[in-house]
Specification:
356 residues, Neuraminidase, four-stranded antiparallel β-sheet, 42% strand
């Protein structure tokens, strides 16, 4: 009887260990069946941590900010063609001097070290944009590029940079209507909290009041420039903060997962993407063990500021730790801060209509 009990216990331990092993299987390596599929839920494999992504207007191109390896090498910016999902690295033209608005910039970044984290676009014309990217390679900065889109794809020309204050690391960036920018700082050097910093040409950096949260992460500015949307990663919240004198009060919504980036959908709603796992799992799997982090995407109604889950899935060997979601035609494209892949999800697979 004793041996039978011990055998049953051993079997249970083996089953539990096996379940844990598969749950913590090194995930997001950009391998597996989803890399070969071209319909249904599938993946574009071979990218190196495409943490953020944006469509270039109505063109056939999406750009990704690739964080690269743990030492920030082999990151940079990639262009993906929507029709066939092929991609290529973009080598920016770094030969020009910084524009007058960036007169304090010390010069062009080292192309071997450029690591693109959060990205943002300021449209100027149908095929012309200003690209802002958070860079961790070689210096902590916001690098600024002129983007021109042709039939061959986007071309980037460096136009300047904004160096972060000492000991500050940015996560996400968004443009303001006055040619300024706002960035999230997850951890201030003098505080356990983060904040949003604002930069305007000629005025330098200032802190945006009311933005000291626990892990400021994704950020958006409303189309009219009057409101700021900020993720509080550690508290699983998204906040709406007035940017101008107004009677509107700040609002918040709890998501039930840790939100990373924010993106506008075509209908004006906000897509928040993040991680439903415990913070300990995110920390260990994302930065130590290389194991799986699940993904969840929610839609926030900007009028009611209520959220509904659109999509959720466990990590696997192809894709882990979704960070940023955009609508591309009748699909969602989802980036990641650990994966060597980008996930493509048909809208027909969503739990709720996305409202585009």
């Amino acid at each position: 009887m004793r041996s039978a009990a011990l055998g049953l216990l051993a079997l249970l331990v083996f089953a539990a260990a096996s379940a844990l092993y598969w749950k913590l299987w090194p995930a997001g390596r950009g391998t597996g069946r989803e890399c070969e599929l071209t319909s249904g839920i599938h993946a574009v494999c071979g990218l190196n941590k495409p943490e953020d992504l944006l469509r270039l207007g109505d063109s056939d191109w999406v750009i990704t900010g690739n964080m690269g390896n743990d030492d920030w090498a082999e990151g940079g910016i990639h262009a993906l063609r929507i029709g066939d999902e092929t991609f290529r690295a973009i080598t920016p033209d770094l030969s020009r001097p910084a524009a007058p608005a960036y007169r304090d910039c010390p010069g062009a970044p080292d192309p071997k070290l450029l690591s693109a984290h959060g990205i943002a676009l300021r449209p100027r014309a149908p095929d012309e944009h200003t690209l802002y990217t958070v860079n961790h390679g070689g210096r902590e900065s916001i690098e600024v590029f002129d983007v021109r889109v042709s039939a061959e794809g986007p071309a980037l020309t460096w136009t300047g940079c904004v160096v972060l204050p000492a000991k500050h690391q940015a996560n996400s960036v968004a443009p303001l209507p006055d040619d300024g920018i706002v960035v999230t700082i997850p951890h201030l050097p003098s505080s356990a909290r983060g904040a949003v910093l604002q930069w305007v040409p000629g005025d330098g950096w200032t802190e945006v009041p009311g933005t000291r949260f626990q892990g400021d992460n994704g950020i958006l500015v409303s189309p009219d420039g009057t409101r700021l949307y900020v993720n509080e990663y550690f508290k699983s919240r998204v906040h709406e903060i007035p940017l101008v004198a107004t009677t509107t009060s700040p609002r918040s919504v709890d998501l039930g997962f840790h939100p990373d980036n924010l993106r506008f959908a075509p209908d004006g709603s906000i897509l928040a993407t993040g991680h439903p796992n415990a913070l300990a799992i995110v920390g260990l799997c994302g930065f130590v063990l290389g194991c799986g982090i699940d993904t969840e995407v929610a839609r926030i109604d900007p009028t009611t500021f209520q959220a509904t889950t659109l999509f959720a899935r466990d990590a696997n060997e192809t894709f882990s730790a979704g960070t940023s979601t955009i609508v591309v035609g009748d699909e969602l494209w989802i980036g990641s801060f650990v994966s060597r892949a980008l996930l493509v999800v048909p809208l027909s697979e969503l739990r709720q209509p996305h409202g585009s």
